[in-house]
TrEMBL record:
The keyword Ligase applies. It comes from the Bacteria. Residues 28-193 form the N-acetyltransferase domain. This is GCN5-related N-acetyltransferase. Keywords: ATP-binding, Ligase, Nucleotide-binding.
Length: 775
């Protein structure tokens, strides 16, 4: 295989426009500069120290002249200038730009400037990353930079970027040069910076120094009352501040003379967040919809870092305005329409919303549906599953599952991640995160409906996709309480032939290699204990599943005790049980828990999903080979073609640039080597990006879809698509074809559709037709 190719890093929001996170967790906004930004740039340069201006312009210049230089655009040259805006009123705190070194050149000069007060927040690195990603898409291959030798901060940005930089010094100036194609270090440091900033931004939610309840009320039926009660009754380890505008009326009225003050839930209330004397990192907003934005403004002015908006009924315009207010003040937002969040760590004990405090455990939960979130917590409690933290996302105006996955990745309290997802904001970013995080902690997902794109996404990233809430919790219990199975070999121990047969069929239909040990209807607890102990010690099995049906010869509690006793001798294998009784006994072997299921099919399905996940985790991650296509030639072909269908000759040339040979239709029917007629197509989806599909065509009943995947494909992804053609085609040749197509659509976002027709057999393939559409 060729050397490895590293796809460009993918930010959560837009590459050139959208919210960004500073290293300290505060939010800002990134967008391209325009001539109308001149006053903002003049204001920035006026704030800067003379040294900062001289570092950027190599001499002292006036703010007005500096702004004109930053906005200067030479005709025929590619230039991109990005601004970072922060605060209310909005101001520019950083600007970065690259300027092409002559029309058609593949190199550009890059520079950036950061407000003195925002040094050390990661802005220089972020701007460099974004400019490099944009430039690479436009055919730029190298960056140059010139800086003064004493400008240590800028030099450190280049050195720590991960790019392979070369430097030359002359007369107090340093020239920096480097290729901007992503490499392993660049991608790793991009992901690390994103993770650090995301975790910092979420800390005020999970470890706030103080919590304000905006809209706290004395009415026991009100949301504000219940939120305050949850915080206090669950013993949050910090101060709680009720906020109610009525407090100002009491203070200002005649009651003041009598010493009367407003108290909510035995706690002194404040007329506004600004009046609170102590630290407030988190505010829970429960006011009516028309008051939410004003409440958020007040929180931002007070310096609150995180908001949970429980209020429902906001229109789309209000939700957008709420997000803009939070961004302008550097706050992060959960909701609106959230039921709140829970963090069970004993040093925190935070129940900030309408959900109570569940038992502490290793399972982290996120739900888009509020009502479902409460039901999920109750079901987890019933199953004995402890929770590390729970977040009800609501409308997802800001904080999303992608943010939470990164937080839980580094959370030592979390061992398993469970998500209820109704829709994706950035599925391609989710795919990258899930591939990485799933190697350490299992990610389980419940999602309504069956979308081929989503199913492909889960298959490629090791996500455990459950069909129901019951199934996802059955699986979560096994992952939480037991070690991962080393393989698919299962020993089934039972005392009833009928249920045992059902269990055996369920295990085998799930792809497991099951062997049945039927102890008979008169089996005693000691027989169970001895048999289970022997099977746990037998290297021929990777897991043991115990099935018990009360037949009148052995009490349920005695069999449970026998199971626990047998477990104490061997704890490295997966052990689970099904007790077909009226209740669901809990089996403990020391500190370890053995999950118990009510029906054998449930236990078998959970074990099958866990075995599949364990297999994915043991396998090395896939790689993307670098076939070194002629990217510059391809971009020029696309640029000249414009929009619409690509002409046949241009199609042939574009494919050839990526090493794909179009032979055209055979003159006398299908070639002898090709018994299979295949179609490979790519459709660009606005959320998922390029979606690649493989079909078997020419069948009497029409085409048959064989596989769907989201690009970029790894070698493992491509091979998995082709497994159905095993023994019928040259999988290695087809794998390379799929990888080259994936690279083409990733490098050329202008390509919106591809349709390839080919014949394939054991000796290779012949590409006979191709259509490409440009958008």
């Amino acid at each position: 295989m060729p050397e490895r190719y590293y796809p460009a890093p993918l930010p959560q929001y837009g590459l050139e426009r959208g919210p960004i996170l500073l290293k300290d967790g505060r939010t800002a906004f990134l967008r391209p500069a325009t001539p109308a930004d001149r006053p903002l740039l003049v204001e920035l340069l006026s704030r800067l120290s003379p040294q900062a201006r001289s570092f950027r312009f190599f001499s002292e210049v006036s703010p007005e002249a500096g702004a004109d230089l930053l906005l200067k655009q030479t005709p025929g040259e590619d230039k991109v200038a990005l601004l970072v805006l922060f605060g209310e009123p909005e101001r520019v705190i950083a600007i970065g730009e690259y300027v092409q070194e002559g029309p058609g050149a593949d190199s550009a000069e890059v520079a950036f400037l950061v407000d003195d007060w925002f040094q050390g927040k990661g802005l220089g690195t972020l701007l460099l990353e974004r400019l490099a990603l944009i430039a690479a898409r436009r055919g730029i291959r190298r960056f140059h930079a010139f800086t003064l030798a004493e400008n240590h901060q800028m030099l450190e940005v280049f050195r720590s970027s991960g790019f392979n930089i070369k430097t030359e010094s002359d007369s107090g100036e340093v020239e920096v040069e480097f290729e901007i194609e992503p490499n392993a270090t660049v991608v790793e440091r991009f992901e690390l910076r994103e993770r650090i900033a995301t975790i910092a931004s979420l800390q005020p939610f999970f470890r706030p120094r103080g919590v304000a309840v905006v809209g706290a009320s004395r009415d026991p039926q009100s949301v504000g009352y219940r939120v305050l009660e949850n915080l206090v009754s669950n013993r949050f380890a910090g101060p709680v501040y009720p906020v109610n505008p009525a407090a100002s009326q009491v203070t200002a009225g005649s009651a003041q003379a009598n010493g009367e003050v407003l108290v909510v839930g035995s706690i002194l209330a404040y007329p506004s967040v600004k009046a609170i004397p102590g630290p407030v990192d988190l505010a829970v907003i429960t006011v009516p919809p028309d008051q939410v934005i004003a409440a958020a403004e007040s929180c931002g002015q007070r310096g609150v870092r995180a908001l949970v908006v429980v209020t429902v009924g906001l229109c789309a315009g209000q939700i957008k305005s709420l997000g803009e207010v939070c961004r302008s003040y550097g706050m992060r937002l959960v909701g609106p329409g959230s039921l709140g969040l829970v963090h069970t760590h004993p040093e925190v004990r935070l129940a900030a919303g309408l959900a109570g405090m569940p038992p502490r455990g290793r399972l982290a939960l996120s739900s888009q549906s509020g009502a479902l979130g409460l039901a999920v917590l109750e079901y987890a409690r019933e199953m004995g599953l402890g929770i590390s933290s729970f977040v009800s996302l609501g409308a997802k105006a800001d904080v999303s599952s992608n943010d939470l996955i990164q937080f839980w990745e580094d959370d030592p309290e979390t061992g398993v991640i469970l998500l209820y997802i109704e829709n994706f904001g950035n599925p391609r970013r989710f795919a990258r995160l899930a591939r990485r995080v799933g190697r350490q902690k299992p990610i389980l997902v419940v999602r309504p409906g069956r979308d081929p794109r989503v199913e492909a996404l889960f298959q490629q990233t090791g996500v455990i996709r459950a069909d129901s809430l019951e199934e996802v919790f059955d699986t979560a219990a096994l992952l939480t309480f037991q070690p991962l199975p080393a393989g698919p070999r299962v020993a089934l121990v039972s005392n009833a032939s009928g249920p045992g047969t059902l269990a055996l069929e369920a295990l085998r239909s799930g792809g497991l290699e099951a062997t049945h040990f039927d102890l008979g209807s008169t089996a005693t607890p000691s027989q169970y204990r001895e048999t289970i102990a022997q099977l746990l010690a037998d290297p021929a099995y990777d897991a043991v599943m115990v099935l018990f049906v009360p037949m009148g010869f052995a009490p349920t509690e005695d069999v449970a005790a026998a199971l626990a006793e047998a477990r104490r001798g061997e704890t490295s294998k997966t052990l689970l049980a099904c007790f077909m009784t009226g209740g669901r006994p809990r089996v403990f072997a020391g500190e370890e828990r053995v999950p118990v299921y009510r029906f054998p099919e449930s236990a078998a399905r959970a074990l099958s999903l866990v075995v599949q996940y364990a297999r994915w985790r043991r396998e090395p991650p896939g790689e993307i080979p670098d076939f070194q296509p002629q990217e510059e030639l391809a971009r020029e072909l696309v640029r000249r073609a414009g929009k619409g269908p690509l002409e046949p000759e241009a199609t042939r040339s574009l494919l050839a640039a990526f090493g794909i040979a179009l032979h055209g239709p055979a003159t006398s029917g299908p070639p002898p080597l090709a018994p299979l007629h295949l179609k490979i197509s790519v459709q660009h989806d606005s959320l998922f990006g390029p979606v690649l599909a493989l079909e078997l065509v020419g069948l009497p009943l029409g085409s048959q879809l064989l596989a769907t995947r989201i690009t970029p494909l790894t070698d493992k992804d491509a091979l998995a698509m082709l497994q159905v053609l095993q023994d019928h085609a040259d999988l290695s040749a087809l794998q390379e074809l799929l990888l080259r197509i994936s690279r083409l659509v990733e490098e050329l976002p202008e390509v919106s559709e591809i349709s390839l027709s080919l014949w394939a057999g054991s000796e290779g393939y012949r590409l006979e037709g191709a259509e490409i559409l440009l958008a």
